Amino acid sequence: MKEHSKENLLHMLQLVAPEMTLQELKNDQLRVTVMKKLLVQIHPSNFTENQDAQNIYEDVQTFYDACCSRMNGEKSGSNQMKWLQRRNQKSPNTVVELVVQFNVRQKWHWLQGYLRPLSPNKIESGKVLAPLVAYQCINCRGAIAHGKRPSLIYSWENVESCRGKSVMDILDKHGGYKSLTGRQVDEIKIEIIKNGPVISFSFIPSSSFALEHSDSIVKSRIKKHHYALIVGWKLTEYGSVWLVQSYNGETTFEVPVGQCSIDETILVPKDDFSNVTWQCGPYYDKDMSSFRGWLQSESITLVLKSNDLEGLAEIFEDTPFDQVIKDQERFVIRDKKKKAHSRSCVIEGMQWQRDIKAWKVMCSFNDKGSSPLLDNDYSGYSNVE
User: Domain 106-269 belongs to what architecture?
Assistant: First the structure.
């Protein structure tokens, strides 16, 4: 509630850096470092029984942004919402500096406990580890594009058929890849926030590291490239660490940023998998761009001309519509422009509309809805583990 001034900002940062001076406050790098330390200490996960913890955490960030803006010569308004809007409009490059914890399973909650495919046995060879991690990344990103857990995925059989192939081979087969390096730590974080997990191609676990994380490390890959799925990061009192998903899906372990060559080479799928089908059919393909909110609604009414209705009838082969409605036969509405966007439904009723010479087909969805990744989706920066 205090005025957005450098003096008040200094007082706030002195909570964790008592010796900090006004002169040091002008040092952008030092100021960000101290702010990160403060955010770690007041993180809501440290105060699980305090209902105001999340609001305080967000208010501190808003106050910090407002004070920094005024220090840079911008006017300070009395309306706190003005500053909150300015903060939300920041580029990902700016915002990510203050994100102290992030895990893809918090932004995309349907990934909680989800990792496919999994090996039926403990992996002993890197020849199968590479395609396994590649397909785990693709399936996770597919779930993000789909907006919920997919029922149609790349399976262990796909992994087995690619035994001996590299991560690059697999990603090339599915739309290609791009690479990021350890000098682009913020870019790696932005990629994870925007699009999901990334693959470390350069992770080389030492003997001591492998001993500490024996259940997550393939023995034959000790002191060799051990492909790994990075699902987030967090700031600890010892510095930033990457959150790495164990290949067996059981645990997430930490690797300090820059250690074990973890971020020396990061591979990222080029394809957003929005035109890959992630749900079992049968499918009725339709341009859904005019049906706003259909991915979250409980029902939908399709207005179909006679030839379009014939296309729907073909899904059910020789079964007449009255029987389809009676038996509540399932089918999937799939957006023909983005096939990853699909939902299972049943027909509840049909009605001929003489005035528009079309059929109204009333359908109800079988699921609770989906939330696929949309264009320019930068939400989730404050999501935390």
Answer: Alpha-Beta Complex (3.90)
Q: Could you read off the pLDDT of 321-375 as tens digits, one per residue? A: 999 999 999 999 999 999 999 999 999 999 999 999 999 999 999 998 998 876 5
Measured in whole angstroms, the distance separating CA 224 from the mean position of its chain's CA atoms is 29
| Tens digits of residue pLDDT in 251-275 | 999 999 999 999 999 999 999 999 9
**Which strands, in side-by-side order, build the sheet including 299-304?**
283-286, 331-335, 342-353, 358-365, 299-304
| Residue 220, token pair as written in the block | 């034959």
Residues of the chain with CATH 3.90.70.10: 106-269
Query: Per-residue pLDDT tens for 85-111?
Result: 444 444 555 557 667 889 999 889 999
| Alpha-carbon distance values, 122 to 119, 210, 217, 249, 381 (Å) | 7, 15, 10, 12, 35
**Half-sphere exposure of residue 142: CA atoms within 13 angstroms, side-chain side:** 26
